[in-house]
Design a protein that fits this description.
A hairpin with an 8-residue loop joins strand 11 and strand 12 (325-329). The chain is of the alpha/beta class. The protein is 43% helix and 13% strand. The protein has two domains: 58-287, Aspartate Aminotransferase, domain 2; 292-419, Aspartate Aminotransferase, domain 1 (Alpha-Beta Complex). A seven-stranded mixed β-sheet has the order 4-10-9-8-7-5-6, with helices on both faces. Strands 11-12-15-14 form a four-stranded antiparallel β-sheet. A two-stranded parallel sheet has the order 1-13. Helix 2 runs antiparallel to helix 10, helix 11 (289-311) runs parallel beside helix 14 and helix 14 runs antiparallel to helix 15 (403-419). It has helices at residues 21-36, 49-55, 77-94, 106-117, 143-147, 164-174, 192-202, 214-218, 253-267, 273-287, 289-311, 337-345, 374-378, 383-398, 403-419, and strands spanning 38-39, 66-67, 70-71, 98-100, 123-127, 149-153, 178-181, 205-209, 231-235, 246-250, 315-316, 325-329, 349-350, 352-354, 368-372. The chain starts with 20 loop residues before the first helix and ends in a 15-residue tail after the last helix. The longest helix has 23 residues, at 289-311. Bound molecules: pyridoxal-5'-phosphate. Residues 43, 105-107, 110, 134, 136, 182-184, 209, 211-212, 235, 246 line the site of pyridoxal-5'-phosphate.
Length: 434
Amino acid sequence: MPHASSQRPSPGQPSYRSSDHELWDAVDAEGRRQESQLELIASENPASAEVIAAMGTVLTNKYAEGYPGRRYYGGCEHVDRVEDLARSRAKQLFDAAYANVQPHSGTQATLGCLMALAEPGADVLAMSLDHGGHLSHGHPKNASGIYYRFHHYGVRRTDERIDMDQVRDMAKSLRPKVIVAGGSAYPRVIDFAPFAEIASEVGAKLLVDMAHIAGLVAAKLHPSPVPHADLVASSTHKTLRGPRGGFVVCKGVEELKAVNTAVFPGGQGGPLMHVIAAKAIAFREALHPSFADYMGRVVANSRALAEGLMARGLRIVSGGTDNHLMLVDVKSKGLTGAEAEVALHGVDLTCNKNLIPFDTEPPMRTSGVRLGTAAITSRGLDVGDMALLAGWIADVLEAPKSEAVLKRVRGAVAELCQKKPIYASAAVPIGQAH
Ligand SMILES: Cc1ncc(COP(=O)(O)O)c(C=O)c1O
């Protein structure tokens, strides 16, 4: 597969002939891997060719510390336009008054928000990692957990949904500075209104991390956190299908000022202008009606896959899914999550082991795998394909050592991958169509 940067000559873009075969061989091999495996990792998604092209431009050469119109370097007139486009598109997409598009990643966005909302050492209440939270929500080895005193709520045992009574009780007794809502493995709708009510009752700020559901929020398939939260942090590369990166949106100018300072100079130096250009392109793609249609198919595929797996006797955490992901309890087939991940990888189905609520296994083994449908929907898989996929997954998990089963499923996956390639698929916008 030729790499994108050799395909798009434009003013100021240097042409080159690479002699670095060692490096480009690895890039090309990764391209072949992506085309030949079905990507079920819920946080991944193939960006459009235009998004990828933007990251291989001369914008990478420019230092632009500061914000548009107030930079610490000269020569920023063109990158100012780039960042202004990215900010205004982010604001339009999420109906937000303000945006900061500089965070290098979702974690940087969340850390910037924490710095903006609370002093180091402050109490913060967030969802625990093993109930679907994220490392940047207070893991002891993450800066969030090193610099803030995190406390964690979880889901109820009975229905595996967020226990709002526990959130309220903990908030009342701890009086945290910040309450965090959002996570990386929560398959249900999050109702932000009661979080905002509780935060206001106890005098806390509400930070929503919508990294996983940003695409659904953009498509109005998940309630927006923007009207409820003081700050909303996100990644750009999961359901939103942009470049690897982060951003923050909010409704209040004071919160914007605080987060701007927290991102630069607080936690970062010069912004990655080539990535900000790619974010602008991704926001524009997400504003197109075809994106809402795509997200609708992601959710329909997710439901169909969960139903197919349940029909084969696999337990799905919380009994199903409302969004792009599900947690499969593989203990119901006598496996650990680690064993299931390896078995599925062996038939070119890529996923990750994941803790499930009240897991009795340690994080490197786990009782579950997390499956998502954002990436496979981008390459054009539909609900009919989900029925097949559910059958293949169940076949492999029931007989992970059977060479005959593995060979049959591997062959079927290869055939589907060939039929629905990533970068020849109409499901992935290639940039010229809008
Ligand atoms: C809820 C949540 N927040 C933040 C992140 C971190 O994003 P990044 O990898 O861009 O730092 C993730 C990544 O999985 C996530 O799930």
